[in-house]
Amino acid sequence: MTIPFEEIAQEVASQGASWEVGETSLTNLLQEERELRLGYTPGPEEPSLIEREGLAQANLQLHAAGIAAAFGRPASYDLRNVGGSNYVTPVKDQGSCGSCVAFGSVATVETTLRVARKNPGLSIDLSEAHLFYCIARAQGRMCSGPNGGWWVPPALDGFKNTGVVDDACYPYTGGDQNCTNLCANWQQRVTKITSWTQFTNPEQMKEWLSSQGALAACFTVYNDFFAYRSGVYRHVTGERAGGHCVCVVGYDDAAQCWICKNSWNTTWGDQGFFRIAYGECGIDATMWGVTVPPLSSQRVPLYRYWNPNATDHFYTTNWSELGGGRYGWNYEGIQCYVFSAQKSGSVPLYRYWNPSIGDHFYTTNWSELGSGRYGWNYEGIQCYVLPAQASGSVPLYRYWNGRAGDHFYTTNWSELGSGRYGWNYEGIQCYVYTSAASVEPSQMEDIPSSFRVEGPAASSGMTPDKSSFGLTESGGTPASFTLTPESTAPLTGETVGDTGDVPSSFSIETGAAFTQKKGQGVTITINVNP
Asked: Is residue 291 within 8 Å of 277, Cβ to Cβ?
């Protein structure tokens, strides 16, 4: 049946409640249709909706104590109007799908990003469809039914571990989907959070809102809430409809309420927003805030190392991994400069490790190896680089040597040109810089976990053998690979040709050692251990 909002209005008036009732976009829907606009299901270890309401009522005393002691924060705060600036992104519509957790989580991240960047005009529109139809769906969650809805912690974990793409990469439409409309290059378009924090103290919630950004919150929806138009909502009549999650964007101690952004379009409530009394319907039993990565335009060094025992080149922005060179790794200097945090226009440079051939691999193309396959273990994002040439940037060339089982990256075309001495030119991997602003790397030197140096090698500084790298006998590990310059003649004369293809082979061959004299005054010596 539809919502009898005239009767609700009479009940609100008779109880002296301070909110306005009216016809909304949801009051004329059937009960089952309204319930599809919800979607919060308490998690396995979370309190039930009824228990949350009890916890929120208990928090009322903390609200009173917090207001009395609130010397370090404003008495009211609204992220829609901070010194005349609006940090809250536009209201959306979840439609006929219990995806409110995705909408509340996305709204929380979007607003927090604007606050962190000190930019109320920051263009940010993230995909609720990716978060719900891909990440939640992978956990078995759906729009409705026995597995309908979701809860906040796994949603924020999805933001932290996988990341969420922009809305244009996967536009939202209401209705169950099997992650069917995600764009092809989605891995390069995700936004991640650094961490998330759970709050149960209302004073901490207010301090977060007034200093860090928005909060995600969940509460019990009763049928009278569907007829809300304005004012401070308090439940007065009607049955329990279910759980719902929203984004909290402010508070008002004078009015004793939270200010929230809903996901039922601007045709509901106060242009899509609502106020709800402190302690009401479980709203402040728990809230969740997110921390976003800092925006950094500072360039940091990408250090380059060479290990003749593993015949592997290694690149890292973390000086602590190998420092000036140890455990068989020789420090070769700064290869180039990159970004340590994602900034506008940059993309991740993913890092992989293959223990069977002792090789590290770096790519901006997630599709090459994804989360790890064909013997390659994904180790995370090494840094951020440019996918296209920009002012001041230069190409980072990529090479592959099948005999040495090594990938090599350089900004110096003269080192290998279009490919020689056993190295196959594979194209331009990305674009980087040859200079930095101010860079002061830490001098702490820890052993990188990816090399798995253990026992005596780790404690004494001895060069580890191939077992320390987890190498297998199959494939044969080259014992040495040296380029010996015999003159100072420059290596020139090649023309760049960018293939951009995935390496055809990640394996190496075994056989007898050999030495071959090459042109340009360079001798290459390869010793292969069968």
From this structure: no
Strand partners, 125: none
* Among the listed residues 408, 434, 436, 433, the one whose alpha carbon sits nearest the alpha carbon of residue 422: 408
The Cα 23–Cα 434 span in angstroms is: 62
Task: Enter the DSSP assignment of 295.
Answer: P
Residues involved in catalysis: 100, 244, 262
- Torsion angle of the four alpha carbons 404, 406, 409, 415, in this order, in degrees rounded to the nearest 10: 0
264 forms beta bridges with 93
Tokens of 504: 């055809």
Q: Which is nearest to 102 in space by CA: 136, 146, 72?
A: 136
Please say whether the dihedral angle defined by the alpha carbons of residues 496, 497, 501 and 507, taken in this order, is positive or negative.
negative
* Radius of gyration, alpha carbons of the chain: 29
Alpha-carbon distance of 181 to 127, in angstroms, equals 11
Residue 100's alpha-carbon distances to 65, 217, 234, 298, in angstroms, are 32, 11, 21, 37
d(CA 164, CA 190): 5
Q: Quote the CA–CA distance of 273 and 79 in Å, as a whole number.
A: 12
Query: Model pTM?
Result: 0.60
d(CA 278, CA 393): 53
Does an H or E element contain 429, and which? strand 424-433
- Give DSSP secondary structure letters for 94-108: --SSS-HHHHHHHHH
Name the strand (E) or helix (H) holding 348: strand 347-354
User: What's the sign of the alpha-carbon dihedral 257, 260, 262, 266?
Assistant: positive
Q: CA-to-CA distance for 273 and 267, rounded, in angstroms?
A: 10
SS3 449: helix
Q: Along the 530 residues of the chain, how does pLDDT read in single tens digits?
A: 677 777 888 888 888 888 999 889 898 899 999 999 999 999 998 999 999 999 999 888 766 665 555 556 899 999 999 999 999 999 999 999 999 999 999 999 999 999 998 889 888 899 999 999 999 999 999 999 999 999 999 999 999 999 999 999 999 999 999 999 998 888 878 899 999 999 999 999 999 999 999 999 999 999 999 999 999 999 999 999 999 999 999 999 999 999 999 999 999 999 999 999 999 999 999 999 999 987 656 678 899 999 999 999 999 988 878 888 888 999 999 999 998 877 878 999 999 999 999 999 999 999 999 989 899 999 889 999 999 998 889 999 999 999 999 999 999 999 999 999 999 999 999 999 988 653 334 333 444 444 433 333 333 332 323 222 232 323 333 333 333 333 333 333 333 333 333 333 333 333 333 333 334 444 444 444 43
Distances in whole angstroms, Cα of residue 57 to Cα of each of 51, 80, 277, 282, 463: 10, 27, 11, 7, 63
DSSP per-residue string spanning 309-333? TTTEEEEES-HHHHTT--TTPEEEE
